Amino acid sequence: MFEQLPSVRDLVDRVTWYLLLVGGGRYPLKLVEDFGYVQTTSTEILKSYIFNEPIMVDAGRLPPLGPAAMFMGTKRMPGTAITKSVVANEPGGRKREEIFVDIIEKISITFSSSGYILTSEIDGTIQMKSYLTGNPEIRLALNEDLSIGRAGGRSVYDYGGSAGSGAVVLDDCNFHESVHLDSFDVDRTLTLVPPDGEFPVMNYRITQEFKPPFRINTLIEEAGSLKAEVILKIRAEFPSDITANTILVQMPLPAYTSRVSFELEPGAVGQTTDFKESNKRLEWSLKKVLGGSDHTLRAKLTFSQESHGNITKEAGPVSMTFTIPMHNPSRLQVKYLQIAKKSKTYNPYRWVRYVTQANSYVARI
């Protein structure tokens, strides 16, 4: 009986993988397959995914191209794809010099049924991630009018935008161990040598009153013994050149709610509604909301039994989750990000971003 010979395609695949293993990506291969379809891949892209050290071997001493033989060898480099930086490389394979600074603020607000702010708090952090070679020294300048402590209980409620004027008052803050505070009391500048990876440069907390990014108005009207109507209205209080993303409004309904029908405003785009019958919860999702805009939802409730008592006491409170890029209610800003230059031509990329997220955003009914 004759041994079954491998197909031409099988031989091509074996040769391709063998060249990848022993060649370290030096061959202009185009036989990368995706679900059986041949894809064209450049040599430069292949190089970033090949981690084996090339070994020069005598062509006459090549081992058989069997499945096990192609993985044998005296020298092999461990694969490090999972730990490789995701930062794009410059042309020629050089690492791209970048540094990211994110000012992230998570806000908590509780509104009364009449719309007054009962509690408000900001939990903020300055997060840094450095891809700079050589770990150069960095100077991070914050607001010159930044103060720590209550400062007489001053309010920043007249704040009109992330670039607005006025003092920034922190209740308290703490710094990463790599931060030097020699000049912080003088000009509010932080000096540090960033460690590898992502780390918090500074954490801070604000409990004084600030302007909320959203206002929530809720109205519940009874329409008979087995029906009621809920009107939800949200208004974006931030500037019109800023857009909030992934907004979700939730409201618990009475336990005896059996059905809910929704009515959105005319021309509404990117909005969805749902009634979670398992936990009797109304959900209103908005993909994007521009600053200064208003949005309204009407929900008609049908009950399985006659309501007894006040419906407003059995529904709510209304809660919101959202993300607002390039906006921070505290007005804390990075005035400049200075990197110790290695040479006159050294000019790495600097990225400073602001983002506000809802931690606990609740309006009582």
Describe this structure in words.
- The relative contact order is 0.16.
- Strands 8-11-4-3-21-19-14-17-16 form a nine-stranded mixed β-sheet, with no helix packed on it. The chain has a four-stranded antiparallel β-sheet with strand order 9-10-5-20.
- It has four helices and 21 strands.
- 8% of the residues lie in helices and 42% in strands.
Please describe the structure with a list of short key phrases separated by commas or semicolons.
365 residues, elongated, 9-stranded mixed beta sheet, 4-stranded antiparallel beta sheet, single chain, mainly beta
Order of helices and strands: HEEHEEEEEEEHEEEEEEEEEHEEE
N- and C-termini, Cα separation: 85 Å
Query: Main beta sheet: strand number and arrangement?
Result: 9 strands, mixed
What gyration radius follows from the Cα positions, in whole Å? Answer: 30 Å
The total count of helices amounts to 4
Instruction: Write down how many β-strands occur, each being a DSSP E stretch of 2 or more residues.
Output: 21
Global structural class = mainly beta
Strand content: 35-45%
